[in-house]
Write the structure tokens for this entry.
Amino acid sequence: MVEQIQGIIVVNTETIPGKLITESFGVVSGSTVRAKNIGRDITQGLKNIMGGELHKYTELLEESRKEAMSRMVSDAMARGANAIVNVRFATSAVTTGAAELFAYGTAVKIE
């Protein structure tokens, strides 16, 4: 699926169908570190006991993905790219109750 963020085409594939990559600007990235919220923890802890989706944590992860993607796109725009290919995500624990969500890909110019 081809997604467009702030005018930049973003894909998780090596190429974009129907487009020619004419220049590569290297790896671009964006990240955010988010901590859990005590109020959220209490309500989600109860939900965890009963089972089911932890909606507040799902929302937290979605916000984190959007922020990391936005920062990655800004990095690509600063380099003169109009697309990012091979987009991937990674996470890591920073400290107890906080984690980083990291988005990265290759900034390119396409025609």
User: Anything to note?
Assistant: The chain is about 35% helix and 40% strand.
